[in-house]
Amino acid sequence: MRIEPASHLQPAGTVLPPNETCEALARRLAAETQGEVLFDAASRGRYATDASIYQIMPVGVLVPKTERDIATAIDVARDLKVPVLARGGGTSQCGQTTGAALVIDNSKHFRRVLDLDLDRCTVTVEPGIVLDHLNAQLKPHGLWYPVDVSTSAQATLGGMAGNNSCGSRSIAYGNMVHNVAGASAWLSDGELVDFGPVSNLGARASDIALHVRQLVLQHRGEIHARWPKVMRRVAGYNLDIFDNQSEKPYTADGSVNLAHLLIGAEGTLAYTRSLTLKLAELPRAKVLGVVNFPSFRAAMDSAQHIVKLGPTAVELVDRTMIELSLANPAFRPTVETALIGRPAAILLVEFSGGDKASLLPRLKDLVDLMGELGLPGSVVEMRDDAPQKNLWEVRKAGLNIMMSLKGDGKPVSFIEDCAVPLEHLADYTDGLTEVFARHGSRGTWYAHASVGTLHVRPILDMRTDGGSKMRAIAEEAGALVRKYKGAFSGEHGDGLCRGEWIEWQFGPAINEAFRSIKQKLDPINLFNPGKIIDPPKMDDGALFRFAPATAPKPYRRIPLTPVLDWSAWNVQADPVTEATTAPGTGGDLTGGFAKAVEMCNNNGHCRKFDAGTMCPSYRVTRDEQHLTRGRANTLRLAISGQLGPDAFTSEAMHETMDLCVGCKGCKRDCPTGVDMAKMKIEFLAHYKKKHGHTLKDRLIARLPDYAHLASRVPWLLNLRNSVPAARWLGEKVLGLSARRSLPVWRSDTFWRAADASTFASREEAIAAAREGRKVAVLFVDTFNGNFESQNAWAAARVLKAAGYLLHTVQKDGGHHCCGRTYLANGMVDEARARAGALIDALMPLAEAGIPIVGLEPSCLLTLRDETLVMGLGAKADKVAGQALLFEEFIAREVKAGRFQLALKAVDQPILLHGHCHQKAFGAVSPILDVLKLIPGAKPELIESSCCGMAGSFGYEAAHYDVSMQMAEASLLPAVRSRPDAIVVADGTSCRHQIADGAQREAVHVAVMLDRQLMS
Question: pTM to 2 decimals?
Fold first, then answer.
C-alpha cells in the first residue's frame, strides 16, 4: 500500500485532509477491514473523475468486501473527520461522484439480489448491482426493472437511486423515485435505518419523517409557487413527497414513502445498504416507428402530438448524432436502416404491449398522424425485434457518440437536462439554439422528447474560454427554463455543475429547508459534502479536469515524441461547423497521443459485460485499474504531469497497462474511439526504452526471424512440452508458464514443403490480373507457416479449387513478417523494418489490384491498422486497401458472383469463436457467411470476449490465471457444452486456448472448407 501526495491543487471547499490524517485513515482501514485499500496517487487519480468535466483527487479508495467493511469505514472516517463518498459505476454526468473524500466503491462486491418477491413484484438488491445484470436475472420470471437508462450496461442501482435516474421509457414508467419501495441505509452516526412507507417506520425514521413533514407545512406556499410541475425534476431533495408536485405522483395511492427522500440525494444524506425496487411486467411485444423530419423544429413540434398516441418512448436523434453514428463502423449499418434520405432529425416512437398484432394499428396511427402533420412517407416501420434492438443500442450510445468529436472542444454537459412542458419544446429549443449561436457554438441534441427533456451540449473548449461561456449560456438557458415553467435539472442530477442552481430554482426558503434535511440526517456533513448543500460554483476552473490557464494549476501536457503517428488526433474542431483542421495542427506537445488519450470522457462503456469484446481484463478482475477507462485516466494523469515526474514510464504505469491484452475491443466498442491496444504499444516502446527488454521479450519478438532455423531441429525444442524439468526451467528463466503447453515445432513448414507448381511468380500473377483472371496473394504468416502449415495448404487448395491463381511472398532464409510480435513487445523500430519489407514485397501486387489474403487475424489486420501509423507512407495505405482475411475475401467474391465451390454437406453443429481483432474490424459476419456455403451448416457464434491467450499473454506465468479466467468466462463452457460440435476459430492463440482448456480441436475456417471439398 502506497500513500502518495497528488500534485493537483485542490480549491477551497475540496481540500484534502492533512497527510497525517490520510495516513491514519489508510492504516486503520488496512487493519480493520478486509477490503482493498488504495491510497497511491494513480489509484486515487482513477477515482478523481466521473463522466463530467470535473476532477477532484479523493483522499483514498476503499473497495469493501463485506457490509462490516462499509460500516467500519464509516466509523473510522467519522472518527478522523474524513468525508465519505459512495460510488457505483462512476458514470455521473455532473460530478456527483468526485470529491476530496474517502471513495467507497460498491461495484465490485456488492452486486447481489438479496430477495425476489414474485407475489409483490419487488426485488431487494445491493447498491452495486448493474441494471442490465439485474434485468437478466428477472427476465426468466417475465419481469424487469423499467428505469432503462442509456448506461444500463454499466450503471449501478445505487448510483441510479442517487441521481433519481429516468430513462427512455419514463413517460410510461416514471423516474427512479416512482419505482422504489424501500431502502436500508447507514446514517453518519453509524445507525442502520430502514426507509419505507411512513405507516411502518421505526423510531429513527419516524423522527426524520416528522421533521420533513413539518418543513413541508412551513413552506407549503413556497412549494406550490416555485416547485416545477414536470415529472422530470430531480434537483434538490424530494421535499414534496408530503405534498406531491409532480405530474406523476410518487405512489399510486398517494401515500408517503420515506425511501423517496433518499432518491436523488446524491449520497449526501445516508449510505445505501440495499434498495427494494418495484418491478414491471416485461413487455411481450414492441414495434418501432422511426419518423424522419426535414427540420429539427418540426421534430420538436411534433412530439406533443405523438405522445397522445400512447407510446412507451419518443426519443430524438439529431443530425449531428446521425452523422457521427454513420461515421462509426459499429453503428453505420444500423443507422442506415432508419433513414429516409438525409433527415435533419429522427424520432424513435415505440409502442409495447402483449402481442405484435395489437400494436400494428398503433404504427398505422403514427403514419396517419404524420400525414396529417404534413409529413407523409416519413415513417420507417420496424416490426421485427432485431432491428429495433440494434437501433435502441445506437440511441443508448448517443451521449458517448457525441463525445467522439476530435480536438480540445467537446460537447459539455451542464444544461442538458432542462425539462420543459411539451407544448413549449419547439420554442425552447429554438431559443437555446440562438443562445449557443451568440456564444460562438452550437448544440448537439438527443434524448427524451416524450417528456420534454432534451440532452443538449454546446461545444466548448474548457482549457480556454469554456468556463466563461458555460456561465453565460447557463444564465440565458435558465431564463428560458423559467419562461417556459420548466425544471433546470431534469435527469442527471445536480452534482457540481447544477448544484448552485438549486437556490435559483426553488428560492432561498426552500433551499434552507433542504439544508435542514441535510442537517437532520447528516449533521456532521460526512456524506459527499459540497453536493446539493453549499455546492461550489459550476465554473470554478480549479475543479475542471482540464483546468484553464487562469486556474491555480492549469492543465498541461508534458513534451513527448511518440513512436507511432497520432497526428490524426492532433487537430482542432470548429465549434459551429465541427470541421477539423489538418492532422498535426492541434498544438499537442505529444504529437496527438495525449489528445487520443483524452478522448476518454469516463462514460464507463468499457464496464459492460454484454456481447462484444471490451474489456476482457475488467470482466475478470472488476478492478478500475484494469479497465480501458482506468488505463486512459492513468495515462492522462501521467502525461499531464499530475502523477509526478517520469510517471509515464514508471512501474505503476506498467502495472496499469499490464493486463491490457491488445484485443482492440475498445477500438470498435468504445463510442469515443479510445484505442488502448495501440496506446499500449506506444507506452511499451517508451517503457522498454527506459527499462530494457527481457530475454523473454526478445525471444518472442524475434520468433519470425529464427523460426526457419528452429524448424530444422523441432524435436529438440519440443522437449520443452514433454520434459517436466524443461517446463520448470522455462518458467524460471523465461517466465513462460509450466502449466501451459507451447506450440509444437515441425520440420515440414509451409515454405519448406511448398511445391513450386502451386504458386505463380509475381510477374505471372500481375500479368494474369491484367488479363482479368482471378488472382490472389496468399499471405502466410509466421504461425500458420511454421506451426500449423495445414491451414495454409488448406487455404491454397480451397482458393485453387475455386479457380484462383495464387502467389505467395517469400524471402531468402525465411519469410516476410508483419511485425506483430515486435509491436507486442514495444519494439516499434524493428516492427517498422519488418512490416516495411513486407509492404515493399506486396506493393507491386497491390498496385495491380490483386487482393492480399491472410489467415491469421492479428497478422493480416496489422496491415490495415498499425502499419498505417508507422511512417511507411502511401504504400502502406495501398497495401492496406487490398488486405483481406480469408473469409472476408471469399464472402466478397461470393457476393460478386466470382466464387463457386462444390462442397459436401455437414451434419454436425458448428460453433464459431471470433478472434478479437476480427470483432474489432467487423470481420466475424463474413465467417458465418462462408460457413453457410457448406450444405447443412448452421453455424452458431459463441458470445465471448477475448479467449485469454492474446498472443504471448496467456503463455506467461504471471498471466496464466487471468488468461484462464478470461477463457472460462464464456468460451470454454460453451465449447464443453457442445461435445458434438465442430469448433471453428481462426486465431492461432484461440485454437491453442481451446485445446489447452477444453481438450478440443478447433479448426481454421480454411480447414473446414477444405475438408468439405468434393474430391
Answer: 0.93
